[in-house]
Sequence to fold (100 residues):
Amino acid sequence: MAKNEKKKPSDPEKIAAGNRLRDTRIALGYGTGTELAIVLKVRERTYLTWEEGIAFPPIYFLKKLKDRFGVSADWILFADPSGLPQRVLGKLSFDSASLS
Fold:
């Protein structure tokens, strides 16, 4: 793969987790991944690989998401909305894509 060639996501579970991460970011009021990356002090490109479904977000990031916003790893990784804060839950739309 060429250095500037973009890696494409292929794992459906990573893609679904990335979609939930994106939907959660929007529900939290952040317009771009860059904005949330800055707030949570992670590199922008690294964050975007998680949101694009290229890789799963690591534990340290999921802990930051939980500590700062109350968003559980169970939601991002396993589509379990039971632990989401009401302010986030109310802004998410649940369709078959976000729950798979």
